């Protein structure tokens, strides 16, 4: 079905549609290596989506296909309702990409480089807009400086300015904070939040779980070319809220005694430990009740300790289970 168009491209009819729809996407490189398989993914308008995955998982391949830089082997991608193969230009114009690698013309000035990028997308010159992005990225003072005379961090800022030069609706940031100092990282996150407030959808790839935790509305995990999880960050955080209480028993048990079996209680370590998994954020954890019933049944323990699962563990479990 064709989306209803409105002049500003942000009408209600379109707001509920995914801004990017990836369906059954596969990529086999010329070497025969299968980098992506059966990838389905929908990105919502104006969300911050973090694509998380270890080295070589397929993150860059996926965003390169969406941005029209790499051809898919199978499947389909549409961006703002435009098929990225059939309707490449219309789809590509909606996207700004900040790649992992720094690649700019060393002998151009900051101003000219960013102005030129805008021109590449066929947009009319708009010096006021370029001035605004350079100011937002703390590059205004450097507008006449040649790129080669900039620091690494400033070159990265230029890459972002270039990506934003044609007022894209979607911004891809591929490993935005790899090798970046604290100040640039903070500026980058502030900029991402401001862009989102102005209606831009942001997709970032990262190895860093903290980054996803800090920024994202939703998190997708990719491993060995497959999407293994897509979830609201808040839901992931609830999983993070799970805690475990381990009771080291005086005498090993063969099974959990009758009347003690409750959800989340398991016997482990050859019956020498009772492990109770509970939601740390719940009003009633059930611990007091469990301990009372253990005492009633004469189950003694010599020690107890608690532990909390981290997003890191959830991630490792997910990725590890698919090998
Ligand atoms: N042009 C290519 N030819 C053959 N294999 C490739 C090519 N580009 C990437 N690959 C392989 O595809 C897999 C996915 O690579 P990709 O760059 O998409 O991963 P990534 O998740 O972005 O990794 P990283 O976090 O290291 O950037 C890797 O095993 C990589 O070696």
UniProtKB/TrEMBL annotation:
The keyword ATP-binding applies. InterPro entries: AAA+_ATPase, ABC_transporter-like_ATP-bd, ABC_transporter-like_CS, ABC_transporter_ATP-binding, P-loop_NTPase. CDD domains: ABC_DR_subfamily_A. The keyword Transport applies. One of its GO terms (molecular function) is ATP hydrolysis activity. SUPFAM superfamilies: P-loop containing nucleoside triphosphate hydrolases. Keywords: ATP-binding, Nucleotide-binding, Transport. Pfam families: ABC_tran. It comes from the Bacteria. Residues 20-249 form the ABC transporter domain. Transmembrane segments: none annotated. Belongs to the ABC transporter superfamily. This is ATP-binding cassette domain-containing protein. It comes from Microvirga thermotolerans.
